[in-house]
Amino acid sequence: MNKKIFLFSLISIFVLAACNTIQTEETLSSEKIVSSQEITQAKEDLLTDNEVPRTILLNAKRWEYDQEEIRLKQWESVILRVNNIDTLHGIAIPDMKLVWDDEIEVDTSKSGEFEFRCANYCGDGHEDMVGKIIIE
Fold first, then answer.
1. Tens of pLDDT along 9-52?
2. Are 129 and 89 in contact (CB under 8 A)?
3. pLDDT of amino acid 101
4. What is the full DSSP assignment across 53-90?
5. First vs last Cα of the chain: how many Å apart?
6. I want to staple 104 with a disulfide (CB 3.0 to 4.6 A). Which of 24, 31, 52, 100 is the partner?
């Protein structure tokens, strides 16, 4: 009789263990962990390939830009074009690690405020050539 109880107990343990494994596999297969890279890719996929980037003209002359603030939407496709009126100015956005003299696509994947300034020394008022890009 002890052998029957032992066998019954052993079989019960195997059956319970198998049920628990199946339940765990079902739980794992129904829950999907999404990485930040997959989220970024999904957002990029929402933008159509035919979308024409918005071009913003930023006139630069000693010692000012014609726009002190540029507002953009997050994930918006934007090209910023610098029109150097009197000498070479360009633009630098340190937080985005961008520096250029005429035209570049702005990375709008992160929201926030980003300071821009003149990228090329243009005289005594050079340090006053600043503005801000706001990505909402």
1. 656 665 555 555 444 444 444 555 666 666 666 666 655 555 78
2. yes
3. 84
4. PEEEEEEEETTEES-SEEEE-TT--EEEEEEESSS---
5. 75
6. 100
By the 8 A CB rule, do 84 and 54 touch? no
Sheet with 64-65: strands ordered across? 64-65, 54-61, 78-84, 103-106
Q: One-letter amino acid identity for 19?
A: C
Nearest residue to 89 via CA among 64, 122, 41, 133: 122
Residues in the chain: 136
Partners of 104 in the beta sheet?
A: 80
**Which amino acid makes up residue 91?**
I
Q: Does an H or E element contain 21, and which?
A: helix 2-30
